[in-house]
Amino acid sequence: MSLQIYILGLLHKGDYHPYDVKKRILQGTNNAVNVTDGNLYYNFEALLKKEFIQKSQIIQAENRPDKITYSITPKGREAFKEEIYKSFKNAKSIRTLLPVLPFLEYVDAKKLFFYVEDVLERLNKRAKEFEEKGLATEIDPVNPDYKMLIGEVVTESIKLEIQMFNKLLLVLKTRLSSPTL
């Protein structure tokens, strides 16, 4: 669904041809994301079947296939917003939010702020439980280096998630205090 969310987000801003969407994804990620034409067109078709998007213009040219641009429908706008809220509500890591972060202007920042606080509460609880159980420092007599490495990776991963979600909270706080809202 993350590619579909991204497509809906771009179509929220204007009409696009699938190839234009692919170019924007590649440019926005410095070609770090691999989007195949088949996957892209499959997701456009899926959104069309759900009536989240519609064909807005068909451009015909000689010796070339028709070029179809798409626009988002009112049903698609609602589904898009709900998917953003759902992404935040169910976030397990900051990476799961990357497809929706460019489109936060379309949703209620207060609601997102609440969801991020909830995620931080869960992460802090997890970090505390991890420390209390001693898993971060527990040493396996047979393979102490391996066990310590696992503990350190998990501990540092949780700390990084907490740090990134705190940064996201700051972004949302700035947005909430903006006079334009």
Automatic annotation (TrEMBL):
UniProt cross-references to SUPFAM superfamilies, sorted A to Z: Winged helix' DNA-binding domain
Alphabetized InterPro entries for the sequence: Metal_resp_DNA-bind_regulator, Tscrpt_reg_PadR_N, WH-like_DNA-bd_sf, WH_DNA-bd_sf
Organism encoding this protein: Paenibacillus macerans
Annotated Transcription regulator PadR N-terminal domain residues: 7-82
Name of the protein described by the UniProt record: Transcriptional regulator PadR-like family protein
